[in-house]
Specification:
With 149 residues, this protein is α+β, with helices and mostly antiparallel strands. The chain has two helices and seven strands, in the order αβββββββα. The chain is globular and about 40 Å long. The chain binds nickel (II) ion. The site of nickel (II) ion (NI) has 5 residues, from α2.
Length: 149
């Protein structure tokens, strides 16, 4: 386990469309452990693999007010409900906070590190966080979507 470098806005990897994970092996587990260590060290709410320079469809995020860490491989948003506008930040864009409109509720289908299918249900802050992290996997940053009023 190790803390990895967090790539910042301007790095090309943050603008790439990440590739699906096909091998659920020890290397994937090591990467995900490192992502969790890096998320905790950086005191963030979520971290996507491109933010540590790996263009693969993986994110980790805090849940339950930080009591739980969610990990998701090849996540897909399958259902959304409502809208919510709230400030966001990003470990790859230091010191910037801007309002973004996100669904109020989301259902995400993904896999765990062992390749087992999982379903994640989130609302409010956690829903926005999941959407933010999944955007990273498509090369989208929250500042692309910010609501400037
Ligand atoms: Ni981010």
């Amino acid at each position: 386990m190790a803390i990895r470098q967090i790539y910042k806005v301007g790095d090309d990897v943050l603008r790439m469309v990440s590739k699906p994970v096909t091998e659920f092996d020890d290397k994937l587990s090591e990467l995900m452990d490192d992502m969790i260590d890096t998320l905790i060290y950086a005191d963030g709410a979520g971290l996507a693999a491109p933010q540590v320079g790996v263009s693969k469809r993986i994110f980790v995020a805090t849940f339950d007010g930080g009591n739980t860490i969610i990990e998701a491989v090849n996540p897909v948003i399958v259902k959304t409900k409502g809208k919510r506008v709230a400030p966001e930040g990003c470990l790859s864009i230091p010191k910037i906070s801007e309002k973004v409109e996100r669904p109020r509720q989301v259902v995400v289908h993904a896999f765990d590190r062992h390749g087992n299918p999982i379903e994640l249900r989130a609302s409010g802050f956690n829903a926005a966080c999941f959407c933010h992290e999944i955007d990273h996997l498509d090369g989208i940053l929250f500042t692309d979507k910010s609501v400037r009023k």
